[in-house]
Amino acid sequence: MIAIAVVAALILVALKMALSRKEVSETEEVRGPMIHMSGIYSIVRESPRKGLAALRPDETAIRRFLDGINEDINGAPIRYSEREALVKYWKAQVELNLQEIEKGDESGAAFYYYGYSWPCPVCNEFVAKGNFVTREEIYNYPHIIPPFHLGCPFMLNAHHGADIRLKGGTSESDMAPFFDGEKPPPIPDWINVVSLPAGAGK
Hints:
The protein is built from six helices and four strands. By secondary structure, it is of the alpha+beta class. The chain has two domains: 1-38; 48-192, no CATH class.
């Protein structure tokens, strides 16, 4: 009788475990699509590389544009060496900003703030150091990723909300939302402005 009772108890435990596994499996199947449909997975994991590449000029287009430019907005002459420096700087800035976002995705950053290596008289009319955007805003509007024009020094920096020190001399008091509503504010058009970066052509 004891042996029968033990066997029966084991059967009941096995049945209970099987039912529990089925419930967990069904819950996971339901949660998976819900998370995907909410956009959380795509926003956090999807790199903005493709979206930005579709909006920004390639190297050929930049060189073609610069062929007709003889000086920058400050009147500095643009020779062959400056043209090459501008192309190189543009590519480097695009890559640095994309890498910062991709690293932020790995660490779960939800906010990014704008900073720069030196003040930009062009961009300062549109965006201020410390203005921040959410990862969702970047996902929806990849054109807000710097650089905004040839020679633009602006960068996006990941911010986790508990950072004590911010990059580029930015302080917590500088932090303010870049968006004033649902739509992004205007930003410079890359084809309208050329500003030689510091040390260009040297």
